[in-house]
Design goal:
By secondary structure, the protein is an alpha/beta fold. The chain is built from six helices and eight strands, in the order H-H-E-E-E-H-E-E-E-H-E-H-E-H.
Length: 193
């Protein structure tokens, strides 16, 4: 084959690839999520406040939640505009898979306290406060890596004064993540990530 035929073939192949749309189940996901390892599963726009953080509000905290629901049911709740609740992220128990439901620039409705909603990133974890089997190694590891990334991006200290339990938010009526959440392990993993 001569050089001219090779160049024509290469040009035709390149042209075909520029005309084809992106394919694959995750096409575009990385461009949409703030955390590269997350899948974009958006909450209903009625369940959060559009914003321009950190310009509009400084991000000072990460709030740790436990869903009291399954992973799938939690995502369904966040997609239901009548529920008026959301979090930025949801971490699945079985494998640590992460869904991002609200962009970090926006204010998720997770803390039960408007000021803390504006100042924090909310991370839900699949499980129940009284069922420690849901707090798997994969869940802790993947969540800690996510929390470390959030802390690094916003200059949040990786300590218990800034990585809060939902139950520690002033005015909170929830008890999560509950007595079985291993804070020593979690903060250690956050600092190793």
């Amino acid at each position: 084959m001569d050089r001219r035929s090779l160049l024509r073939g290469a040009a035709a192949t390149a042209a075909a690839h520029t005309l084809l749309p992106a394919t694959g189940a995750w096409a575009g996901t990385a461009a949409v999520t703030d955390y590269p390892d997350a899948e974009w599963v958006p909450a209903a726009s009625a369940n959060y406040t559009a914003s321009n953080r950190p310009t509009a509000y400084p991000v000072r905290y990460v709030v740790v939640h436990v869903t009291q629901e399954t992973y799938a049911d939690t995502l369904g709740i966040f997609r239901d505009p009548a529920r008026r609740v959301s979090a930025h992220y949801v971490v699945r128990s079985s494998d640590g898979h992460i869904a991002q439901c609200v962009r970090e620039r926006d204010v998720a409705w997770h803390a039960g306290n408007w000021n803390y909603n504006t100042w924090s990133i909310g991370i839900e974890h699949e499980g129940w406060v009284d069922r420690p089997a849901y707090f798997t190694h994969a869940l802790y590891e993947r969540s800690a890596a996510l929390t470390a990334s959030v802390c690094d991006r916003y200059g949040i200290p990786k300590d218990r004064a800034h990585i809060l339990a939902h139950s520690e938010v002033p005015g909170a009526t929830h008890t999560d993540p509950g007595p079985y959440w291993d804070w020593v392990r979690y903060i250690r993993l956050v600092n190793l990530s």
